[in-house]
Structure formats: structure tokens, C-alpha cells
Amino acid sequence: MIAAPEETMERRARLRRLDDILEALEQLNLTEAPELPERVRRSLAAHDIPAEPGIEIRVLIERVWRKQESHMLNPRQERRRSSTRRSPGRRPPGHDVIESILRQANSRE
Model-level pTM? Predict the structure, then answer.
């Protein structure tokens, strides 16, 4: 079943926000931050990701990854609703000219 456009947009927005949190956590991890900033703690709480006092940042990174996985779709679920193939009656611009040139070239052979 294909998700409704609103659901797809909301899912993508959640994934973007989780990506932002993940980036912040990775930066904190690289700088070996002694504690988690309140802003990041609030963002985690908004996504129901627990952040106990004294928790290691690498553990939080793993929790964010798991949360992202829960928002991922099977690639087959998010398909285009219509085919990208051209219908037989519709030809690309210039097709008739090219077809005419090819016919003339073949008739000379």
C-alpha cells in the first residue's frame, strides 16, 4: 500500500529532524562533550528517545538510528503512482524528423 502524500511528507520531516539530532550528537561525540546540552535533550524527548543523565553519547546515537529505522519504508512501498514510460501514442519532440531521416537513409541503401 502506498502512503498518502501527507503521511510521506510527515515521515520525511521526522527523518530530517532525526538527522539533525544525529548530526548534533555526532558533533558532541567528536568534541567529547562532557554533558548533553538541554536543547539536544529536549529534541530527543520530543521523539520519545530517553536520555538519562550521564548516558554516553554513542548510546544515544544508536537510539536515534533505531528510531530512524522505524520511520524507514521498504523501497517497494514508496513507488511512483504512475508509470514513467511514455504511452505508445506520445512521441518525444523531434521524433518525426529523426524517423524521416532514418527512412531516407535506409531507402538509399
Answer: 0.61
